[in-house]
Amino acid sequence: MTSFNKVIVDPAALAHNYRYLLSKTAPGVRLMAMVKSDAYGHSMTRVANILGTSGCTLFGVAEVSEGVALREAGCSGEIFIFLGFDHFDVDYLFTHNLTPVVFTVEDLERISETQRKRNSDLNVYLKFDCGMSRLGFSPADGGEVFERCRTLAIRPCGVMSHFPCSDDRQSGNSELVADTFYNIGSHSSSNQPLVRSICNSGGLLYQPGSHGDMVRIGISLYGYYPDGREGREDVFDQGLRPVMKCITRIIQIRTVGAGTGISYGHSYVTERETRLAVLPIGYSDGYFRTMSNKAEVLIQGRRAPIRGRICMNMCMADISTIENVAVGDEVVLLGSQGNETIDADEIGSWSDTISYEVLCALGNNNHRDFLI
Ligand SMILES: *Cc1c(COP(=O)(O)O)cnc(C)c1O
């Protein structure tokens, strides 16, 4: 069965973005594709497959279960697990050859113990918190952590951290964070150099001095700039191409008189006779209720405003000024139609959020099709 609502993913745009981002790094810097949250709504397994064909061999997910699913779907690259693991799940790291990014001594001990039991080694990276105040060892404890690894017979492949403000080119914060990060591991007694990775999309695009050995790209891979519209307007080459489109169809057209309240709470009252297209998409499909009376959709290549509250499965677009609209016509919620475009940054601006959340919400709540 199909749905009226469809998310369309463009593999060519994805591959283009990967190549474009690769061209922004120095030779030898490796790109990790962040495919957590089902690849920001674009489908983790499909995205990993498409990028694998483009030469990507590094993939990042949040949890062990995602890593297992990705491996079982045939991904042969290195899969990084960023949020640790339940101790019952430690064996999956070994059986599915997953690489944990570790941030507690307890997890190091558990890995060490399992390495001994299974007589096999695991690639392990260490996560440090250099200013995000989120996950990670404290850089001040670096010496101790490396010493602990040594006694546990764990040889860390590398260190990772995360920029809190890399999307803000005016902020001087990233230099401070990078400084702290690049000093970590001076205590490491290992001869093997540590792989260093701190950049997300903002780091890659706006902190070119901090790329290190490995850059972890998420939003830019899917065609958006981490600082939204600003990025798109300021960066002189408009290199990234949005990968996701979202469409629906009109299921009924109604005409109501002047002074008629529309949808729950009558938060919109018509000023004149109004023609409404009823659309079968609502907040349970990731079309946020907070953009009631703010959102616009594209019909016949023209912008039609959403009137009244967005319901769980429906909303109403005002098509009074658009000619020749019929039931069954395609409606673009995200993407282009004719000469008009609505991107995830604009949807974010209507709902007080960012492109990241828009893509996850629409992508993970609607049927996905892939262009060939
Ligand atoms: C999601 C994520 C990224 C990617 O961030 P973007 O801003 O989407 O590029 C990088 N690193 C880690 C650890 C992440 O969780």
General description of the model:
The chain has helices spanning about 10-20, 35-40, 45-55, 65-70, 90-95, 105-120, 140-150, 175-185, 200-205, 230-235, 345-350, 355-365, and strands spanning about 5-10, 30-35, 60, 80, 100, 125, 160, 195, 215, 245-250, 250-255, 260, 270, 275-280, 295-300, 300-305, 315-320, 330-335, 340, 365-370. The chain is α/β, with parallel strands linked by helices. The protein folds into 2 domains: about 10-235, TIM Barrel (Alpha-Beta Barrel); about 245-370, Beta Barrel (Lyase, Ornithine Decarboxylase, Chain A, domain 1), CATH 2.40.37. The strands form 3 sheets. Strands 1, 10, 11, 14, 15, 16, 17, 18, 19 and 20 form a 10-stranded mixed β-sheet that branches. An 8-stranded parallel β-sheet has the order 8-7-6-5-4-3-2-9. Strands 12-13 form a two-stranded antiparallel sheet. Strand 16 (about 300-305) and strand 17 form a beta hairpin. Helix 11 (about 345-350) packs across helix 12 (about 355-365). The model has no long low-confidence stretch (mean pLDDT about 95).
